[in-house]
Amino acid sequence: MNEETAKILKMVEDGKITADKAQELIESLKDRNTQLAPDDDIMEKMLMIKVNSHEGDNVNVKLPVKFIKVMLKTVGKIPISDGVKGMENIDLNLISEAIDKGLSGKIVDVKSAEGDIVEVSIE
User: For the YvlB/LiaX N-terminal domain, which residue ranges apply (predicted)?
Assistant: First the structure.
C-alpha cells in the first residue's frame, strides 16, 4: 500500500471522510498514476534528431534508444559531428532524463532568431 492510500484510510478511520469519499480518492489516485506511467516500450523506440542551420548544415539522425543509452553512459555523447551548427544546443542530460522517464514525442523544438531549427523526438 502506498503512502497516499494509507493517509486516505487513516482519514476514514478518524472519521474525517466517508468510505465512499475514500473510494473516490483512491480511484483518482489510480487514474493519475496510470496517466503518469512511463512508456514501457521506450527502449524499443527511436531517437530522432533534426538540425537545419541557416548556414546550410542539415542533420537528420534516427538512432535506437537502446544505442543512445549505451553511448551516453559510456562515451557521454551521441556520435554526431561536433562541428554541425545547432548541435551544441542539444542537452544530452535532458535526452537521457526523458528516456529514463519513458517520455516519447517531441522533447526539443527550437527555432533561433538566425533561422536554426533543432528538433529532438522519441518515436
Answer: 3-32
Pair type for strands 117-122 and 46-52: antiparallel
pLDDT along the chain (123 residues), means of 10: 81 87 81 50 85 83 84 72 60 76 82 83 88
Q: Is 68 helix (H, G, I), strand (E, B) or coil?
A: helix
Instruction: Enumerate the domain spans of the chain.
Output: 3-36, 42-122
Q: What is the DSSP string of 15-29?
A: TSS-HHHHHHHHHHH
Distance CA 83, CA 27 (A): 52
What is the chain's alpha carbon radius of gyration, rounded to the nearest angstrom? 22
